[in-house]
Amino acid sequence: MSNFITNVLKLISGSVTAQILSILLIPIITRIYNPDDFGIFQLFMSISGILVIVSTFSYQFAIMLPKTEEDAANVASVCTVLVTFISLLTGIVVLFIPKDIEIFNTPGVSRYLPLLPLIIFLNGMFFVQNYWLSRKTRFGVIAGSRVSNTLTSKAFQIGFAKWSITPFGLVGGFIAGYVFADLVMLKGIKKDIQVFKKISLKRMKEMAIQYKKFPLFSSWSSIANTISPQVPAFLLAYFYSTSVVGHFSLANQVVNLPMGIVGSAIGQVFFQKVSEVKNGNGKGDMKVIVGEVYKKLISIGIFPMILLIILGEQIFTFAFGEEWSIAGTYVKILVPWIFLVFLSSPISTLYNVFEKQTVWLTFSIILLVSRIVALVIGGTYGSPEFALALYSFTGIVFWLWNNAYLLGLAGISKKESIEILIKYAAIGLIVSIPLILIEMISSSFYVIIFAAVIITVIYYVITLHDDPIFRKMFSTFLVNVRNRN
């Protein structure tokens, strides 16, 4: 477990400074660009995100599985060929799309479609290199690429505003971030050049056939799960406006940014670790590893979610400006669903490890259909808040089931998982009672924030005291940060 913790901390400590700076820069960006700009940017990113997932046919997940480095290199090469092909194909299709076409009642999106092939290639190669470096346990390089991606993206988004305050600034910054991230990763892969010299078309074809379950099942699951979180952008634009999409985009981004630091880091290292154990190349018990990871995710993530439910509007109004207060309301609606996704995402790789891609595909399709139905009903009969509440509720129901199923694969019972969740939820709610009382009687935001900081410290002190492994993890994290400085 010590190596697992060390690798997680390489990713977290390497990204944490950049992510903090990114969070600090978002208030500047929200004061440059308006909700409509964010809405158009989100719609464009939703379109590109779906195409990026298609570009690898999910073969990137198979990079971790072969027992030999040469076979893994052949799988990575299959991914590269597919990403290049889909990028070129998208470029050809874009040539025939009218420039003034309306996409979900938003004609402004079409002018940015020519940039799709570039984004697909850059983002697709980011996925491929990410999994190769995870296999090689070069998590420091991955962390560096994330630092580069985050800082470059935000810096360019601010810099582009000097010439033109349009959605192009947001899109251009996004592209710049992936250019620099890919270059950092490519530098980290240079030492493996001898392995990639051994690839062959024959072996690439054999690997593609051997891992055909990934394009046949996992790719469709990935597409469905990529569309699910993108559905709100399309349907909110259709039923309401790009301004509503912009508020939703900010709410989703702000919550997922810090949660993503921990969730994605744990998920990558977790996949590498359980793949080793499954292949018989690593030490450890699957049930113990999964149980410890699940416990860490709950103990780390539940209290920030409680704080956002209590102080959502105040935080967004103070941090991003008065016109973004509605995003704080959206956060309070979405938080329960986002928390469950945070718990599920790192351990969802168990579907691939246990070769349960058909279950994952069925789950993903049913989830997608339920989200579309929820938003259509909400958009037809109610306000954006009502639509998002239905959307969040369907997410809660399905991700609760998903958690129980994944834990069951590892031999953890529903009773054990519920007990862990209830325990930390109870600690969080009890600790937050003083904050709720202060929020009710005080009109000073600074007093409320000061109380929130103190109470957060109290929660994590209790959590650290309760969990010796978490104590060790936190101590190692502080040492890593101190050494970097």
How would you portray this structure in words?
This protein is an all-alpha fold and 485 residues long. The chain is globular, with a radius of gyration of 22 Å. The model has no long low-confidence stretch (mean pLDDT 81). The chain has helices at residues 2-32, 35-56, 69-95, 116-135, 139-160, 167-189, 193-196, 201-210, 213-239, 242-279, 286-320, 325-347, 350-353, 357-381, 384-409, 414-441, 445-466, 468-484. Helices cover 83% and strands 0% of the residues. It has one domain.
Topology:
Blueprint: H1 2-32, H2 35-56, H3 69-95, H4 116-135, H5 139-160, H6 167-189, H7 193-196, H8 201-210, H9 213-239, H10 242-279, H11 286-320, H12 325-347, H13 350-353, H14 357-381, H15 384-409, H16 414-441, H17 445-466, H18 468-484
Helix pairs in contact: 1-5, 1-10, 1-18, 2-3, 2-4, 2-6, 2-9, 2-10, 3-4, 3-8, 4-6, 5-6, 9-10, 9-14, 10-11, 10-12, 11-12, 11-16, 11-17, 12-15, 14-15, 16-17, 17-18
Uncertain regions: pLDDT < 50 for 5+ in a row?
Answer: none
**Assembly state of the chains shown:** single chain
CA-based gyration radius = 22 Å
In DSSP terms, counting alpha (H) and pi (I) runs of 4 or more, how many helices? 18
Shape, per Cα inertia axes: globular
Distance between the termini: 26 Å
